[in-house]
Amino acid sequence: MRARRASCAVVAAVLAGVVGCTGGTPQRAAPPSDGTIRFVAYDFSENQVLVEVYAEAVRRTGLPVTVDRAGATREVVEPALEQGVVDVVIDYLGTVTQFALRQEVRGRPPEEVRTELEQALGPRGVTVLDPAPAEDQNGFAVSSTFAGEHHVGRLSELAPLAPDLVFGGPPECPDRPLCLPGLEEVYGIRFKEVRSMPSREATVEALQVGDIDVGLLETTDARRFSAPIILLIDDLGLQPHENVVPLVRTAVLDRWGDRLRRALDETSARLTAQEVVALNRAVDIDDLTPQEAAKQWWERQ
Prior knowledge:
- With 301 residues, the chain is α/β, with parallel strands linked by helices.
- It has 2 domains: 8-135 and 240-300, D-Maltodextrin-Binding Protein, domain 2; 138-231, Osmoprotection protein (prox), domain 2 (D-Maltodextrin-Binding Protein, domain 2), CATH 3.40.190.120.
- The chain contains 12 helices and 10 strands.
- It has helices at 8-19, 45-59, 74-82, 93-101, 110-121, 144-150, 180-187, 200-209, 250-256, 258-270, 273-284, 290-300; strands at residues 37-40, 65-68, 88-92, 126-128, 138-143, 166-169, 193-196, 214-218, 229-231, 244-249.
- The chain has a 5-stranded mixed beta sheet with strand order 2-1-3-10-4, with helices on both faces. It has a 5-stranded mixed beta sheet with strand order 7-6-8-5-9.
- Helix 1 packs across helix 3 (74-82) and helix 2 packs across helix 11 (273-284).
- The two termini are 30 Å apart.
- It comes from Petropleomorpha daqingensis.
- InterPro entries: ABC_Gly_betaine_transp_sub-bd (IPR007210).
- GO terms for molecular function: transmembrane transporter activity.
- This is Osmoprotectant transport system substrate-binding protein.
């Protein structure tokens, strides 16, 4: 359940690139005249703070960096990266590979998934760097009270209960294969009612007061550690490995060399799931901006 809204700046640039297509092949955009390395974020807070963390690492090497913080959908960002509208995207291994290959990758080791992603994106002018140890998968949560009353701890145990349950998730959930369609296909789960939730914060609140029975929360969402809710175990393996992974235009790597690659790879090496949870807590609970959270994180490093 990644980004929803589209950044006007990125959308306009992508549309301009599409207009310039000939014979169905996009014309690669020229590098910006000021030579900056252009990062773009998806439209959810975790990705925004991760982009700031990676951008700060590059900035600390003395390389020029800009960050598009408006946010955009994957359907906009991925073409923008391939067309040279943006230079660096911080993505999630399973989701982006499934998007690029148009096929499922669940149940496969991350090394194999990364190889397939490299083979798909390499000819398109995009390099896949080292994934981080940190993963952020879709998770399905219930309140501790619900879990105790119904004796559930695994997703498969929801199947017989689901016809009487209310599910709450992002508006795109009914269309995304790793959300409701995946629950139906892999687990046979069909809920009585599906409600669109405006935010993860609203999902947590609705679970606690009983407005919904099951809600979508990412596994690194810091709010789930400070509320009486639990994530159900994905015992049939619906979710693929979702290691945080930088995608970079190959031409930009060629231009800036090891300084850029090393800064990004060393950042990935530091990012564990616990570190991502801490970054999310700083933004979603402590009310820091993504930029502030990223700078504090680097100061601790």
